Amino acid sequence: MNYVIIGACAAGLSTAEAIRKADAKGNITMLTEEAYLPYSRPSISYFLKGKVKESDMALRKPAFYKANNIKSAKNHTLMINFALQQVQSLLFRQWKMLTVRIMQ
Ligand SMILES: Cc1cc2nc3c(=O)[nH]c(=O)nc-3n(C[C@H](O)[C@H](O)[C@H](O)COP(=O)(O)OP(=O)(O)OC[C@H]3O[C@@H](n4cnc5c(N)ncnc54)[C@H](O)[C@@H]3O)c2cc1C
């Protein structure tokens, strides 16, 4: 099975972890429009005050994603049309249709 998770923060990470517990071999990919893998939002204010380093804001270390074979695509904006059950991806400034089955 191929799993595509739209969003890569707390909810996306929990989803990836839950899938991995249930399916040791499925392909998991997290897509996010941000340039970062899941990080602690509450740490943002501490980061801005210089009390936390950027590298300490990640919710998981890079080794976690490697060990659990969780892939990701950053800077990847998506548009979901629930009525039509379609997901479009903004690639190179053009919307491309993705073939997926939407699960909420
Ligand atoms: C500064 C700050 C401080 C906070 N402090 C606290 C706190 O102290 N306690 C607390 O309980 N909560 C706090 N929160 C709120 C908490 O961070 C959020 O409740 C939590 O981040 C929600 O997690 P989430 O994964 O559901 O959504 P988000 O963290 O919003 O993640 C959404 C993900 O979806 C991606 N995404 C969204 N739209 C698209 C799109 N169209 N295409 C592709 N990707 C997309 C985003 O890039 C992101 O990866 C704080 C938030 C902020 C900003």
Molecular structure report:
With 104 residues, this protein is an alpha/beta fold. Helices cover 24% and strands 29% of the residues. The protein is built from three helices and six strands. The protein has helices spanning 10-22, 43-48, 62-67, and strands at 2-6, 27-31, 70-73, 77-81, 86-91, 94-98. The strands form two sheets. A three-stranded parallel sheet has the order 1-2-3. Strands 4-5-6 form a three-stranded antiparallel sheet, with no helix packed on it. Strand 4 (77-81) and strand 5 (86-91) form a beta hairpin. The protein starts with a strand and ends in a 6-residue tail after the last strand. Flavin-adenine dinucleotide is lined by residues 6-12, 31-34, 41-42, 44-45, 77-78. Flavin-adenine dinucleotide (FAD) binds at residues 6-12, 31-34, 41-42, 44-45, 77-78.
Outline:
The protein is an alpha/beta fold and 104 residues long.
Helicity, as a percent range? 10-25%
Q: What order do the strands of the largest sheet run in, or round the barrel if closed?
A: 1-2-3
Bound molecules: flavin-adenine dinucleotide
Rounded to an integer in angstroms, the radius of gyration calculated over CA atoms is 15 Å
Ends apart, CA distance between termini:
16 Å
pLDDT < 50 stretches: none
How big a fraction of the residues is strand? 25-35%
Rounded mean pLDDT is: 90
SS elements, strand count = 6
SSE series:
EHEHHEEEE
Shape: globular
Count the DSSP helices: 3
Helix/strand class:
alpha/beta
Q: Major β-sheet, in short?
A: 3 strands, parallel
What layout of secondary structure does this protein have?
Layout: E1 2-6, H1 10-22, E2 27-31, H2 43-48, H3 62-67, E3 70-73, E4 77-81, E5 86-91, E6 94-98
Parallel strand pairs: 1-2, 2-3
Antiparallel strand pairs: 4-5, 5-6
The chain binds flavin-adenine dinucleotide.
